[in-house]
Amino acid sequence: MNSKIAIIGGTGIYHGDIFSDMEDIKADTPYGIVYLKSARYKTKDILFLERHGKGHALAPHEVNYRANIWALHSLGAKRVIATAAVGAINTEFQVGSFALVDDFIDFTKGRKSTYFEETNEGIVHIDMSAPYCPDTRKYIIKAASNENIKIRNGGIYICTEGPRFETKAEIRAYAKMGADMVGMTNVPEVILAREKGLCYAAIALITNYAAGVSKTPLTHKEVIDNMNLMSGNLKKLMASLLESLPEESECTCRFAAKEQGSLQ
C-alpha cells in the first residue's frame, strides 16, 4: 500500500458516499498495532485513522501518538490532514466555525513526543518555527473558499493533558499567553509528524467556548452535538480539498529532521 494522503479524525469524516473501496487494515509498528481504514477518492488512495480508537475508547492522554504517526508514515503517507474539536478562548473564533491552526503551545505532561530517544541517530533538535505545512494549509483555505465554508486562516492552539476540561484560571492564563483555542490532542501528534517529515495540517472544529468564556458549564455532550452539526460542512471541505490537493508537496517539511546535532 502507498497511500499519499491520510486523514486523522472521527468516524463522521469517512461515513458517506464520496469514498469507495473502504476496507479495514492494520499496521504493526515498534510502538504497537494500529488499526486504520483505506479507501479511494476517485484516483487517490486515502488512509483514515480514528485518533481515539474504535468507539472513541481512548482518552487524549491514552492515545498512542507515536504508533499512529509511524503507521501513517510506513504506509506511504506524505500529507496528513488532522481534525480536532477545540474550545474557543479568543471570542473572535465563533462556535460552529473552523480554524486552521498555525502554531501551538504545549501544556501536556509526560507524553512521549519524540522518536529520537534510545536510538543511535544522535539527538535531533527539530525546527518547530513552522510546525504546520504551509503548502497543505494553502489548499485547505482554497477548498473552504470554493465551498463558501467559513474558516479562520491561523490560530494558536494550546494543548492540555485532559481528560478534564480546563479551569477558568487556566483559561485566563492561556489567553494572556496568546492562545486562541484549547484542545487535548494536537500535541505530540504535530511534533511526531514533523519528525517523520510529513506535511501535516490541523483543522480545528470550534465546538464550544472555553471555561470562563462560556456562560454555562462545559459538557462533552455540547462538544459532540456541535461536531455533529459541523460534520456536513467538514465532509464538503474534505471532498473539495481532496479534489485539488496534490499527493506531493513543494514544501520543505520532508527535510525537517535531516539536520542533526549529536551530543554523544
TrEMBL record:
Substrate binds at residues 184, 208-210. InterPro entries: MTAP, Nucleoside_phosphorylase_d, Nucleoside_phosphorylase_sf. Keywords: Glycosyltransferase, Purine salvage, Transferase. It catalyses: a purine D-ribonucleoside + phosphate = a purine nucleobase + alpha-D-ribose 1-phosphate. NCBIfam families: MTAP, PRK09136.1. Purine nucleoside phosphorylase which is highly specific for 6-oxopurine nucleosides. Cleaves guanosine or inosine to respective bases and sugar-1-phosphate molecules. Involved in purine salvage. PANTHER family: S-METHYL-5'-THIOADENOSINE PHOSPHORYLASE (PTHR42679:SF2). Its EC number is 2.4.2.1. Belongs to the PNP/MTAP phosphorylase family. MTAP subfamily. It is an enzyme of class 2 (transferase). Phosphate binds at residues 11, 51-52, 185. One of its GO terms (cellular component) is cytosol. This is Probable 6-oxopurine nucleoside phosphorylase. It holds the Pfam family PNP_UDP_1. Although this enzyme belongs to the family of MTA phosphorylases based on sequence homology, it has been shown that conserved amino acid substitutions in the substrate binding pocket convert the substrate specificity of this enzyme from 6-aminopurines to 6-oxopurines.
